[in-house]
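Weekly structure sync, notes
Attendees: PL (lead), two postdocs, one rotation student
Agenda item 3: pending single-chain targets
PL asked that the sequence for the first pending target be pasted directly into the notes so everyone works from the same version. It is reproduced below exactly as submitted, 179 residues in total.
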Amino acid sequence: MKLGENARVILGNGYSSNAYFFGSPEGTLCIDAGTDEAAFRENASDSPKILLTHGHADHWLAAAREKLFLHEADINCFGELNSMFGGLPTPQLEKLPRSFEWGDFSFKVIETPGHTPGSVCFFEEKNKWLFSGDTLFAEGGVGRTDLPCGNREALEASLKLLESLDYSLLLPGHGAAEE
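Predicted structure, written out during the meeting:
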């Protein structure tokens, strides 16, 4: 699925997350990489910048050999977050910036703890796109809080915060987008 001239999505299969790619003269920016390494490599430049909505392996495994940018709260409990997966590689993790620009795109990081302590959404202000990870899904679905480090009360507060945003397109971590 193409979002625009320099933006596209690879929908996840099975438990793999969706992966969002943005091209610019700087290379490729990816929001969540999913688990399909072949699809990731086909859509990413040689040195992509990968930003994660949270630290579960279904959002980063395809890019495990790359540097991954993640909220500090999820870096601090990364092992526990992924304790339900076995035999995972150990990626290089870096602290996520608060906002960033990539080509024609400008993103604001919105902290939305609950699914994990460091869950975030990315809001692309010009297009009013909300990349919601596993915080919010199409048709009102929400992320699980019964996994390690999940917190139902924090998720409910995060959902109230998202209600205040003026977004035109919801791009979740799994499943279809929603206008």
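Discussion points:
- Residues 152-163 form the longest helix (12 residues).
- Residues 2-172 form a domain with the Metallo-beta-lactamase; Chain A fold (CATH 3.60.15.10).
Action: rotation student to compare against the earlier draft before next sync.
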